[in-house]
Every structure is written in structure tokens, then in C-alpha cells.
Amino acid sequence: MFGESVFIRLLRWSYSRKKMVRGYYSKFPNSVIYFRRIRRFYIIYTLDWDERDPIITNEDREEMQYLINDVLGRKSEYLKRKSRSM
To answer: Does residue 1 belong to any structural domain of this protein?
Structure first.
């Protein structure tokens, strides 16, 4: 389901401001990914990408969203989202 080249791990996360969370990932150690809560789950809102990190693909984005929602206890809501491709 997720990227085959490099396994992504959520290194740490922190609250940024109301309805926003910052995530730090092993595949992108120099970049900060910002998530915003939409309804009952979090999606990538913006990021501070560093040129030393690889380009973020759609598969990477999907995996990072899955991981942050899993850690925050919102995995089931994330998996039920309307935009989920079947």
C-alpha cells in the first residue's frame, strides 16, 4: 500500500497551534510537515521542505497522513474519509 523504496517512520510530533500538528519523519529529516485537522482526522496542510531531502511523492504523503492519524488515535476516521481511493 505504501512506498516501496524507503520505510517512513514518524520520529516525533508536536502541536503547532489550534487544529494543527507538526510531524518529523525519518525519510525527510530536514523537513517539517504541518497537518491540519479536517473534520475528525488530520491531512497535510503545508510543509517546510528542505532541498537536502528527497521529493515528497503522493505515496509518501499518504503514508505520513496515515502515521500521524494512527498516533493521534484518528486512524479509523482517516480510513473512512470520502476522498479515499478504492
So the answer is: no
Count the Cβ atoms, other than its own, within 10 Å of residue 62. Answer: 16
Residues spanned by the domain of 43? 10-79
The per-residue b/e assignment along 7-26, b for 16 or more CB within 10 angstroms, e otherwise, is: ebebeebeeeeeeebbbbbe
**pTM summary value:** 0.85
Beta strand ranges found along 1-86 (DSSP E) = 10-17, 20-25, 28-38, 41-48
The answer to whether residue 29 is domain-embedded is yes
Task: Classify residue 85: in a domain, yes or no.
Answer: no
Asked if 37 and 19 touch (Cβ cutoff 8 Å), the reply is yes
Low-confidence ranges of the chain (pLDDT < 50): 1-4, 86
Number of domains in the chain: 1
| 25 vs 86: CA distance, rounded Å | 26
Is residue 72, in this structure, part of any structural domain at all? Answer: yes
